[in-house]
């Protein structure tokens, strides 16, 4: 099973703040800790002690640390790429190479005797992971993670995000990607418009981002990029991550009847396998609620992303829940009960036939 992670940035937070944040994350089952020395490479020697203290504290609380580095940091520490003693003494579990080498160096690093996992940058793409594998790495000490992108519109295209993650899954390697909260303020760099891996995540809720990454089937670990997030955010992510079914956050129509709200939010739905171009159908509610009255309400034209329930005029389809895949007229038999926000629209396309799913009110 995958793991959840948080991020800390010692150059931006006090030791007491970081330790309190680790304590909180540990309570909610977070197991990974991401931190970066990229932004402190100019003062690397002086900051090693600070990083060591917080990394060791995380380890005591059950969080394993990935440390983001690049060739400039090795130079600042006056070490060559294969001298990992300083990182082992810091207590890290994984060394993330934000910028890689030629493939040979990465492969050799995986054979280190310190038990340090080498974490490659999935976002680099091309044939990077193939080059590393050409040199016979120790696969038990090799994983990958996507970058995060603080500036709006610089995030990865979703097609590229998937394509590059698939390259790592071809070798059965563990993968990770970053999500962020709308309330995120603390990152490693001055600018942060939400630090996400794929651009389409930027306007999504935390729950929707977790659902997105899980529904791809390509990402194992999910890491929160901003630091010192609220307990509310940590809990929301943990709850969504533990949910084994896809979750669709929806804006619920006001003044719904009790039975419509129950159908929508209190039931597990199943995407019927006899596929329609126009809708995702969940038919079981029409069996469960066949004796309930569903008065016509909000029978407006149906747009993609709208969630509808068949009303009393729908005959044998009364009670059936549908998610619109395409715009279509409403003949008065469908009550529009909720809307999947445009920023979460991609979730509709990722749902598979015969897959069960849930709704949660935004």
From TrEMBL:
Organism, scientific name: Streptococcus uberis (strain ATCC BAA-854 / 0140J)
Superkingdom field: Bacteria
Domain (6-phospho-N-acetylmuramidase C-terminal) ranges: 248-359
Protein name: Uncharacterized protein
Domain 6-phospho-N-acetylmuramidase N-terminal: 4-238
Membrane-spanning segments: none
């Amino acid at each position: 099973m995958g793991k959840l992670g948080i991020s800390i940035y010692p150059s931006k937070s006090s030791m007491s703040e970081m330790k309190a944040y680790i304590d909180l994350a540990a309570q909610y089952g977070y197991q990974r800790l991401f931190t970066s020395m990229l932004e402190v490479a100019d003062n690397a020697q002086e900051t090693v002690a600070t990083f060591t203290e917080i990394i060791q504290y995380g380890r005591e609380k059950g969080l394993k640390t990935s440390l983001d580095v690049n060739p400039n940091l090795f130079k600042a520490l006056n070490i060559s790429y294969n001298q990992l003693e300083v990182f082992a003494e810091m207590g890290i579990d994984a060394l993330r190479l934000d910028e890689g080498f030629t493939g040979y160096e990465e492969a050799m690093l995986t054979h280190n005797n310190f038990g340090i996992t080498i974490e490659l940058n999935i976002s680099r793409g091309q044939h990077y992971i193939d080059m590393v594998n050409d040199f016979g790495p120790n696969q038990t000490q090799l994983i990958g993670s996507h970058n995060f992108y603080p500036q709006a519109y610089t995030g990865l295209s979703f097609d590229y995000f998937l394509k590059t993650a698939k390259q790592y899954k071809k070798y059965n390697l563990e993968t990770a990607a970053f999500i962020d909260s709308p309330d995120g303020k603390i990152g490693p760099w001055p600018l942060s418009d939400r630090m996400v891996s794929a651009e389409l995540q930027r306007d999504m809720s935390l729950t929707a981002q977790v659902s997105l990454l899980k529904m791809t089937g390509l990402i194992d670990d999910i890491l929160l990029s901003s630091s010192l997030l609220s307990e509310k955010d940590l809990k929301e992510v943990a709850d969504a991550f533990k949910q084994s079914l896809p979750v669709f956050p929806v804006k619920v129509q006001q003044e719904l009847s009790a039975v419509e709200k129950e159908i929508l939010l209190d039931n597990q739905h199943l995407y019927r396998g006899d596929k329609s171009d126009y809708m995702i159908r969940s038919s079981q509610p029409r069996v469960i609620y066949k004796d309930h009255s569903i008065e016509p309400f909000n029978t407006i034209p149906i747009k993609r992303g709208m969630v509808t329930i068949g009303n009393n005029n729908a005959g044998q389809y009364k009670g059936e829940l549908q998610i619109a895949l395409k715009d279509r007229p409403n003949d008065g038999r469908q009550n529009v009960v909720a809307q999947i926000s445009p920023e979460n629209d991609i979730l509709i396309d990722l749902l598979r036939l015969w897959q069960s799913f849930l709704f949660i009110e935004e």
